[in-house]
Specification:
The protein has about 1300 residues and is an alpha/beta fold. It folds into five domains: about 30-75, no CATH class; about 85-140 and about 155-245 and about 255-470, P-loop containing nucleotide triphosphate hydrolases (Rossmann fold), CATH 3.40.50; about 480-560 and about 575-630 and about 645-650, no CATH class; about 710-950 and about 970-1025, Cytosolic phospholipase A2 catalytic domain (3-Layer(aba) Sandwich); about 1055-1195, no CATH class. The chain is built from 34 helices and 44 strands. It starts with 7 loop residues before the first helix and ends in a 6-residue tail after the last strand. One of its GO terms (molecular function) is calcium-independent phospholipase A2 activity.
Length: about 1300
């Protein structure tokens, strides 16, 4: 029992007092006066009299009036009766075995981590129960950020960890319970630990439990209390472990038994001694808690053994500190002298005086105590002055404080001292947080969880290797994507490959030549002119930043004299400091840059392109030598990064080559041979020497810079994904079943089953028909019940005991068959045949902390924190293979087990938990991928659903962290699953509406398309494979009724296959009275996205011919928005279509676009047939990319006649124009020789004006150009 629980007389007196009091039911916060029986909130408890007295009755007592003292000079202290009762309940816990068993059962849910020791003698298992994530999740809704500094959805709180440690029975659990209870309001409920009963010397709780501080729980800086199993408990089984074991043996399993979220075998526990409970408590737990705690609270009951306590603190800290390197801040230490005598000197209750007094009393033992002498000598050898115990302690702790807690009998003093302890904890946490912020090592909630998982992995493998904070930060806080950060990454890569066989000086000597060459290359790419000193000064801050960061954070800490150093409080000097190496690195880089610039000058001739010559020097004279030299064994593939291009060190890598290296866009353009407008051919890898002889050439396809973006999103929905596939197949059929649907999109984002479809279409380049076949096979194999799962009741027990309805192995085998077992989603060696068109694909997943993750086959820059984490590790070792990404996105809770990705040590759940409709992820990703996009919105956003019942009323579904469930609770969750899938389908519709509602009013509605199949009934469950065929047929029937919409979607996508590329811009000064005096001429071409001579270009030509006009050719309509003065048509003549179909070539020739205002938007439409016209990719837009003409809002009607003598028919092109400047795509109406037929218009409130353009196909000397005559006429007179 941590604090004396008191004698039985006190408890009996209080019990009789309560029994004899009035039967009036008091309100919360009210107590009854034992003197007058009045119930009020101002009742106080007297510690000496053992009575409750109101304000009127308190002075009526003689002892109170005369301020008499009790034996031991203890005063009559007035304590609020409610507070006194709280303290009494803590100090007087239930003693019956039944009640204590119930308390321990409840406390099992608060376990954070611990060790499971199998009965079969195998190695102990370290188990993480997910308590940290659960505590964060339970307070997420009540948390209101003080400052909104990150995107919505990111948990930016910065938690602090306070660890309570000490000997068994010292009172750790009691202190935590007192702190929590005294800070909890009457209407709040917070979990607290189990307090040991009086007279029991067996440890109370096992392992480490975690509790939340009520005061900070809903703030930006929550504090968590860790209750560690008692030290020196030996091998005695704690009561909590005993009750837990008894419940496991019981015939009826307990549904609330917590299940671990992750497990790790303790590899080092290979002997009986190492596998013992005592070894784990004294060696493993201290390392973990010391490493991450801001405050260590060491609790003891006997102050006479304080010297041995300090010995334990030093030994404990030394063992932990030696096993962590680059630890940013040392913890603060608070020593609690529990159950102190009530009659001590009153000044000793002051923590400041108590600290000074205690440290002074043992100050000189630093020369006598063997433990102190040992560690003092250790620090003296490292030039640190140690002359007292305080100085020794401050080598391991940021500060030391002593707090006394009295024994039972003085509740007011107990409250006072407990609050002083709490205030000390609060101040120490604040100091630690400020210091971490200064060092840029302050972790938010999600970052801390990731560091913890890294530490769990590390210490499960070995206890004798330091845990490196910087190494952990490398995967959690990526190095900034700038030149300095990229130099730093290459230096770190070199350090790891050389395995510390070279020091900092040698590493940066080797780097200087490569860095200088990258500066030369970058300066020529950016056309930076000037001498070497002018150019070098622009890069100097990046070089300094790289060297300083490497010396301070990445090179192992060391002192001048010893071989192995330890991070600690106090000044120290590293052998290789930034100041010592700065000048040398600067000089080496500068003089080598001068040499390279002179070489560039010597090799240049008047006709040479400077960038090409610089690239050749960089590749042949520097890189070929550098990577061959630093690899030592000739394996340059070891130098590879997924976050920086190791060819130029200036851009993130995007394009994977067959050798495994990944280059940025600029390097692809520099070292590849241009084979068309959108592709480059690579003859070899510039990082590898003479790779031309080793590999066949391969081509890299690029998105045209002046083309717009096309986005496809796919909802999750289990086997209902067949609906999405049928929608895609119907669009593909409209394209004659010859063009793969995914070739018409630049970005495809999917969730769960939608993610699997996205990966099949893009990563595996499957047709929709092949995807359907693969999907049906996958569903048949994946939804395989466990053995006995189909039996009544037995199946229920099996499913709930295993916490998943279906086997994991058949699912993973099916995914490996569908996606291959070895191919990576991003990077890795590839055969040239596996290189696919540059279509981006991303899938969503969820980690156990309820944070969304995105896996992709691409890279992009992002300088802000998002509501999800974009997963891009540094190297191939931690990348996901395609089948693993499919498994991670579809790990539906309660259906399949979570997916554990061993290389990244992460557990993934279904992406639908956060983004069942991934439209918001897709919207953010396309903006990050193409930040300089010419248009404000994509050409098209197509969002596909998996079916829904529009007549079902939507009930808000609260999404939370997946629960750690027992058997019965899991069975209930399966029942709930049948309802959730219906609501999920409606939530997808709501997600789309929310997205559309946030779009500006001027965004064209035709660009944003949601396609979902309405059902007459609720959609079937996610795993009901038996109903998949019925659902598929329902989708086919509905799609046949929506054939007109499918046709328009297909033609809209077809139009985006063409884009405009400007060649040059000129102005013409005309003196003609008919033409405006100043015209802007934009010269350029309409181009096709598909490669020249490709099958896709040929099939596109056939499709246009089949879908086009019956008696005339399709054409492009080009005009200036709000004006028809210079409108023109460009026909897709039979000759052009013939070349497309039979030669795979598309050539419209050079086109001049004439504009009156260079700030106006230009419109280019592909007019395929009557009533079918759609904008080409990237239009409408301002061709000059200047400031938009926001003030220009024309509203007029014009009628224009374009003559063409070779054709007897006319076309009437009708625009519906709105008051706010918006306009629909033009309507194509056939006119006879007699003129315009009657036109019926249905006007809406905004549609007040129209513009009509008559194309008379009879007057132009060429079929592709038209002479324009115009006249204006009011619509009301037309």
């Amino acid at each position: 029992m941590p604090i004396d629980s008191g004698d039985s007389n006190y408890r009996q007196q209080r019990s009789r007092s309560r029994t004899n009091s009035s039967t009036y039911q008091s309100l919360p916060g009210e107590e009854t006066c034992d003197s007058c029986d009045r119930t009020a909130s101002d009742v106080s408890y007297c510690n000496v009299c053992n009575t409750n007295l109101c304000e009127d009755c308190w002075p009526a007592q003689a002892a109170h009036r005369k301020r008499r003292l009790a034996p031991g000079n203890i005063p009559h202290e007035k304590t609020n009766a409610v507070v006194a009762r709280k303290i009494q309940r803590v100090l007087d816990p239930p003693s019956t075995e039944e009640k204590r068993s119930q308390l321990h059962e409840n406390d099992e849910q608060k376990a954070w981590f611990g060790i499971e020791r199998p009965n079969n003698g195998s190695s102990p298992i370290f188990q993480d129960y997910g308590r940290y994530e659960n505590l964060l999740a339970t307070t997420e809704e009540s948390w209101h950020p003080q400052f909104q500094t990150t995107q919505l959805g990111r948990d930016s709180r910065t938690p602090s960890l306070v660890s309570f440690v000490g000997q068994t029975g010292a009172g750790k659990s009691t202190l935590i319970k007192l702190i929590v209870d005294l800070n909890t309001e009457s209407d709040q409920t917070y979990c607290t630990p189990v307090v040991g009963a009086s007279g029991i010397d067996v440890p109370t709780s096992e392992d480490v439990h975690l509790y939340s501080d009520p005061v900070t729980a809903s703030t930006d800086t929550p504090v968590f209390f860790a209750d560690c199993e008692g030290l020196q408990g030996g091998e005695r089984e704690p009561l909590g472990a005993k009750f837990k074991r008894d419940r496991k043996k019981a015939p009826k399993k307990d549904e609330r038994t917590p299940l671990p979220t992750s497990e790790r075998e303790l590899v080092w526990a290979d002997t009986t001694a190492l596998a013992s409970r005592e070894f784990a408590v004294t060696n493993l737990y201290p390392r973990l808690l010391y490493t991450f705690s801001d405050v260590i609270v060491f609790v003891l009951r006997n102050p006479r053994v304080i010297e041995s306590v300090f010995e334990q603190l030093v030994n404990w800290a030394a063992a932990a500190l030696e096993m962590s390197s680059n630890q940013p801040v040392l913890p603060h230490a608070i020593i609690v002298l529990n159950a102190s005598e009530n009659d001590i000197d009153t000044q000793q209750w002051d923590p400041s005086l108590a600290t000074e007094s205690l440290l002074e009393s043992i100050s000189r033992t630093v020369y006598r105590n063997p433990t102190f002498k040992k560690y003092a000598q250790f620090w003296r050898e490292r030039k640190k002055h140690i002359e007292s115990v305080r100085q020794l302690m401050e080598s391991y702790y940021s500060s030391i404080q002593v707090v006394r807690i009295p024994a039972e009998g003085r509740p007011q003093l107990i409250k006072q001292q407990v609050m002083r302890l709490y205030n000390g904890i609060h101040d120490a946490c604040g100091a630690a947080r400020n210091r971490k912020a200064q060092l840029r090592m302050l972790l938010d909630a999600e970052e801390l969880q990731s560091y913890l998982q890294c530490a769990f992995d590390h210490f499960a493998l070995a206890l004798d290797r330091p845990f490196d904070f910087v190494q952990a930060s490398f995967s959690n806080s990526p190095i900034p994507l700038d030149f300095g950060g990229n130099i730093l990454k290459l230096a770190i890569n070199l350090m790891h490959i050389w395995e510390n066989k070279a020091d900092v000086q040698v590493i940066f000597q080797e780097l200087s030549y490569m860095v200088a060459s990258c500066i030369m290359l970058d300066s020529t790419r950016n056309k930076n002119k000037g001498t070497g000193d002018v150019i070098f000064s622009q890069y100097l801050p990046h070089l300094d930043a790289a060297l300083e960061n490497f010396c301070d954070q990445h090179w192992p800490c060391e002192y001048i004299q010893p071989e192995n150093g330890v991070f600690a409080v106090g000044e120290y000097q590293s052998r290789w400091s930034f100041e010592r190496l700065q000048e040398e690195f600067r000089c080496n880089s500068y003089f080598r840059l001068e040499e390279l610039l002179q070489l560039l000058k010597d090799k240049m001739s008047h006709r040479d392109d400077e960038q090409r010559v610089a690239a050749e020097i960089h590749r042949d004279s520097v890189m070929a030598w550098f990577y061959r030299h630093v690899s030592r064994d000739g394996r340059s593939e070891r130098y590879n990064s997924h976050t920086v291009c190791f060819c130029c060190l200036t851009e993130p890598p995007e394009y994977a080559l067959p050798c495994g290296h990944i280059l940025c866009l600029q390097c692809i353009k520099t070292y590849g041979e241009k084979r068309g407008k959108t592709e480059f051919e690579m003859q070899g890898c510039p990082l590898e020497f003479q790779t031309t002889q080793l590999y066949h050439s391969w081509r890299v396809y690029l998105k045209p810079q002046s083309a717009g973006v096309r986005v496809l999103t796919l909802d999750g929905g289990g086997m209902r994904g067949i609906v999405e596939l049928e929608i895609l197949r119907s669009i593909e059929r409209e394209m004659n079943d010859k063009l793969a649907i995914h070739y018409f999109f630049d970005l495809v984002v999917g969730t769960s089953t939608g993610g699997i479809i996205a990966l099949g279409l893009v990563a595996r380049n499957l047709s929709v028909r092949e995807c359907i076949e693969s999907f049906e096979t996958l569903c048949a194999k994946a939804f395989t019940r466990r053995t006995g799962g189909n039996l009544p009741f037995v199946g229920w027990v099996v499913d709930n005991y295993m916490h998943s309805r279906y086997e994991t192995k058949p699912l993973e085998e099916a995914l490996k068959t569908a996606f291959s077992e070895e191919e990576y989603l991003f990077g890795g060696r590839k055969s040239p045949q596996s290189l696919l068109p540059n279509i981006k694909v991303a899938v969503t997943s969820t980690v156990s902390s309820n944070s969304a993750f995105v896996f992709s086959n691409y890279n992009r820059n992002c300088d802000e924190k998002l509501s999800y984490q974009f997963y891009r590790p540094e190297g191939i070792q931690s990348e996901l293979k395609i089948w693993e990404a499919a498994r991670a996105t579809s790990a539906a809770p309660r259906l399949f087990k979570p997916f554990h990705h061993e290389p990244s040590k992460q557990i993934y759940l279904d992406g639908a938990l956060c983004h069942n409709n991934p439209i918001k992820v897709a919207d953010r990703e396309w903006k990050l991928l193409w930040p300089n996009e010419l248009c404000d919105y994509p050409d098209i956003v197509l969002s596909l659903g998996t079916g829904y019942n529009p007549h079902t009323r939507r009930v808000p579904v609260k999404k939370s962290v997946p629960e750690r469930l027992g058997i019965v609770a899991h069975g209930k969750s399966l029942v709930k699953l049948a309802k959730d899938h219906i609501q999920d389908s409606l939530d997808c519709e709501k997600a789309w509406r929310d997205y559309v509602n946030l779009l500006p009013s001027n965004a064209s509605a035709s660009r944003f398309n949601r396609f979902n199949i309405p059902l007459m009934h609720d959609p079937p469950p996610l795993d009901d494979v038996q109903k998949m065929k019925t659902l598929q047929q329902d989708a086919i029937n509905q799609l046949s009724r929506d054939s007109n919409r499918i046709r328009k979607l297909s033609l809209q996508l077809l139009a985006t296959s063409f884009y405009w590329e400007t060649a040059r811009v000129q102005q013409e000064d005309c003196s003609s009275p008919i033409v405006e005096p100043m015209l802007i001429i934009n010269l350029g071409h309409i181009l096709c996205r598909f490669s020249e001579k490709s099958r896709e270009t040929k099939e596109l030509g056939r499709l246009i011919k089949d879908k086009g006009f019956v008696e005339r050719s399709p054409f492009f309509l080009i005009c200036e928005r709000h004006s028809r003065e210079h409108a023109q048509i460009r026909e897709l003549s039979p000759e052009i279509l013939y070349k497309m179909i039979y030669e795979g070539k598309f050539d419209m020739g050079k086109i001049n676009i004439t504009l009156e205002n260079k700030l106006s938007d230009t419109e280019i439409y592909l007019c395929i047939n009557e009533n079918e016209s759609f904008p080409i990719s990237g239009f409408p837009r301002c061709l000059f990319q200047d400031e938009r003409d926001q003030a220009s809002t024309y509203s007029f009607t014009g009628c224009y006649q374009i003559s063409d003598r070779k054709n007897s028919q006319k076309l009437c092109i009708l625009w519906l124009q709105t008051v706010d400047g918006g306009r629909e795509a033009p309507k194509i109406i056939t006119c006879g020789a007699s003129g315009i037929p009657p036109i019926r218009l249905e006007y809406q409130e905004k549609a007040q004006f129209q513009t009509i353009l008559i194309l008379d196909m009879r007057s132009s000397p060429t079929p592709s150009q038209s002479s324009i005559h115009h006249r204006r006429k009011s619509i009301h007179h037309h």
